[in-house]
Design goal:
- The protein is an alpha/beta fold.
- The strands form 7 sheets. Strands 23, 25, 27, 28, 30, 31, 33, 34, 36, 37 and 39 form an 11-stranded parallel β-sheet that branches. Strands 9-10-12-11-13-16-14-15 form an 8-stranded mixed β-sheet, sandwiched between helices. The protein has a 7-stranded parallel β-sheet with strand order 24-26-29-32-35-38-40, with no helix packed on it.
- α3 runs parallel beside α5 and α5 crosses α11.
- It is elongated and about 95 Å long.
- The protein binds zinc ion.
- The site of zinc ion has 3 residues, from loops.
- Keywords: Carbohydrate metabolism, Glycosidase, Hydrolase, Metalloprotease, Polysaccharide degradation, Protease, Signal, Zinc.
- Belongs to the peptidase M14 family.
Length: 698
């Protein structure tokens, strides 16, 4: 950079010389005047774009209300300041002006400043802004939220929300409203399930569409995203725009407008017990977080956004952040960063919205590694996702937002833009998102590498001059929160597993068993002992709740290490809980009734047979021979290679379906009489022989 600077000075000197010596056309713009100003209208905002002025320090955006004759009806107001840290491409400045009544007509002008010196204004552009979405005379489209009806003077109330979403459900085949649960004060926690032409009928069928989930309002006093969600739901339900129908034909959109209905009704951050729900998604002590996590288990979203507002007036329009906890699989971190820095920063620069890393500028100690935060919880569940913050006050760069309704409009319409971009990203990058998820699940199930109880991956500052002056702090794990040698499983006593807890609201708590079931982890019960193996998709999250080193844990489980390693010749009869890691077993393996086998990085040469076993969990392993598993309680086979044939028969596994995912079978696959039916977590298996009955679609 230092070598380039003299060249730039030389060029600008040359330009100056040229300008002073050449004859100036009579109608040419002064050299420091903004030219080529354009105004592009979108939902709730206007993208202003112009030619940059050499040497400009920043730009001021002026807006004047005008009538149909272009006569001003109010005073011109500086509504925006464009600064060089707004966007990644400096050669094409843009500014998303929002914070006005949609549908009104305005005149805009933009001028550069060099230092504190104001340069001449551009020629004005005049345009009528886009009215709230939906034809007022078309059924369905005509619906409006309480927030829209009151022109942002009031947020949509709980009862307005129920009526509005019920009306959308009634009028649109694309939308089904389901109740995920109830808040502490018994408010329904609704989710809109949206697909085209209709949403898939069951959670399992929705999961097969690689759905996306938006959590709109966890902090009750941060309502801007919720209003965006409600508006977007109407657009998705009724729009005939081919983009929308294409999106909904390729996935299912899951929108939870208000997980914290009690907090929203009372305008408090926490729920009615004062609990910050965004510090509870791993522990799930509260009914609200339990509802969301159970939804994630059943609907299996592959990507997510979590909406917030942030009280830092300098921090960009749209601070975002990926899951950073170091137990999140690298592909999920990378894919989330690609969504944020690869997509949102680029599209933000086109639309004029200032996306940046949470923290952004003067951000402080934010965006850390607590697994209790949905951003990290979802990452640990192999979901590509981001936090979204709406800068809550206008600050220096949006000086008109002392006006409360204008401030609210800017926040909501910037969230609406983000959520639409999120859907476009999923549509365009679906294959990459699914690949990242598959790789993450297989990496997690392999149970290799250290475990970190708290600690984040670094978020490097984006290259200047784009945002990221102050990305979130490093947050590296301290040595005492690192476990280099991961156990095979955690063993809980019956008292730990089934004992009544008192950490829920009013001292009423669900058991560890119920919370583990809500997370969807597989458990092997032998007598009074309950084993939670780590060769599972959520391997990074399990120790945070069950290890003594967990910072916010549920219980202090006993670490169980592998007992079977290295080479072993001859037949093997497995009794009790047996864990094999990095083992080579030459000979047939029989898992006795009531016993369990858990393997990672293990090769078994010979048939593997289990009948009436407590559990079989195979990951990153090879079976050179047939596999027959019958009447067994817990079954998971992930990223295995099996010579085959494979037969799963008569397994009754309660509510927890057998998993067969990412596995290559060089022979036939037969599944009969299993209840529930086995599934593949969305990771297809490669089967060289015929697949029959229950496994026909695996
Ligand atoms: Zn928040």
């Amino acid at each position: 950079m230092r070598r380039q600077r003299p060249t730039l000075i030389a060029v600008s000197t040359l330009i100056a010389v040229t300008l002073t010596t050449a004859p100036t056309p009579a109608n040419a713009a002064p050299p420091d005047q903004v030219t080529a100003l354009t105004a592009h209208q979108a939902d709730g905002y206007t993208t202003l774009a112009w030619q940059p002025v050499d040497g400009a320090t920043d730009y001021q955006i002026e807006r004047t209300p005008v009538d149909a004759d272009n006569t001003p009806t109010g005073a011109p107001t500086i509504v925006g300041i464009w600064r060089p840290n707004r966007q990644i491409n400096q050669h094409a400045p843009t500014f998303a002006d929002a914070g006005y009544n949609p549908g009104d007509t305005f005149q805009w002008r933009v001028r550069a400043r060099t230092g504190t010196t104001e340069q001449p204004y551009s020629d004005p552009v005049t345009a009528t802004t886009t009215a709230p979405w939906g034809n007022p005379t078309t059924p369905g489209e005509q619906l409006r939220t309480g927030w829209e009806t009151t022109h942002a003077a009031q947020y949509t109330t709980d009862t307005d929300e129920y009526a509005y979403t019920a009306a959308i459900d009634a009028l649109s085949d694309r939308v089904r409203v389901v109740e995920l649960g109830r808040t502490v004060q018994n408010r329904p926690i609704n989710m809109m399930v949206i697909g085209h032409p209709t949403p898939a009928a069951t959670p399992e069928a929705v999961a097969a569409t690689a759905p996306v989930a938006i959590n709109c309002n966890v902090h009750g006093n941060e309502p801007g995203d919720r209003e965006a969600c409600l508006i977007m739901a109407r657009q998705l339900a009724f729009s005939t725009d081919p983009r929308i129908t294409d999106l909904l034909s390729h996935t299912t959109v899951l929108i939870v407008p208000t997980i914290n209905g009690d907090g929203r009704a009372n305008n408090t951050r926490g729920n009615s017990t004062g609990q910050d729900l965004n510090r509870d998604y791993s522990l799930i002590r509260q009914p609200e977080t339990t509802a969301y996590i159970t939804m994630v288990r059943d609907y299996r979203p592959v990507a997510g956004y979590d909406g917030h507002e942030f009280g830092n007036s300098r921090a960009g329009d749209l601070p975002m952040l990926p899951p950073r906890h170091q137990n999140v699989a690298q592909p999920i971190f990378d894919q989330s960063q690609d969504m944020i820095e690869g997509h949102m920063y680029a599209k933000g620069a086109e639309a004029g919205w200032w996306a940046c890393p949470y923290g952004c500028e003067g951000g402080g100690n934010v965006g850390l590694s607590e697994e209790t935060i949905l951003r990290n919880t979802l990452g640990l569940k192999n979901v590509t996702n981001s936090l979204l913050e709406l800068r809550s006050s206008g600050g220096q760069t949006r000086p008109d937002e002392g006006n409360t309704t204008n401030n609210r409009r800017r926040k909501t319409y910037s969230a609406l833009w983000t959520f639409h971009q999120f859907l476009d990203y999923h549509r365009a990058d679906r294959a990459d998102i699914l690949k990242a998820r598959s790789e993450a699940i297989e990496t997690q199930a392999a149970n290799t590498g250290r475990l970190v109880f708290r600690g984040s991956r670094p978020i490097p500052a984006h290259p200047a001059p784009h945002p990221g002056d102050s990305p979130p702090p490093l947050d590296a794990p301290p040595a005492d929160l690192i476990l280099d040698n991961p156990p095979c499983a955690y063993k809980l006593t019956d008292a730990q597993y089934n004992g009544a807890r008192t950490d829920g609201p009013g001292g009423v708590g669900t058991t560890v068993a119920q919370r583990i079931a809500a997370h969807g982890w597989k458990v092997i019960t032998i007598g009074d002992d309950h084993y939670i193996p780590l060769n599972q998709p959520e391997r990074g999250l399990i120790p945070l709740l069950l290890d003594g080193k967990g910072v916010e844990k549920l219980t202090d489980g006993e670490r169980v290490y592998p007992t079977l390693t290295g080479r072993r010749n001859g037949p093997l009869a497995v009794t009790g809980f047996t864990c094999a890691d990095d083992a080579t077993i030459n000979g047939p393996v029989t898992v006795r009734a009531g016993a369990a086998l858990v393997t990672t990085a293990t090769t078994i040469s010979g048939p593997l047979t289990a009948a009436g076993a407590a559990g079989i969990l195979l990951a990153d392993s090879t079976i050179n021979g047939p596999v027959r598993i019958a009447t067994t309680d817990t079954i998971s086979i992930i990223d295995a290679t099996i010579a085959g044939p494979v037969d799963l028969s008569g397994n009754t596994t309660g509510t927890d379906a057998p998993v067969l995912a990412g596995t290559t079978i060089r022979g036939p696959l037969n599944c009969t009489g299993n209840n529930p039916t086995p599934h593949n977590l969305g990771i297809a298996n490669t089967v060289h022989g015929p697949r029959t009955t229950q496994c026909a679609a695996l």
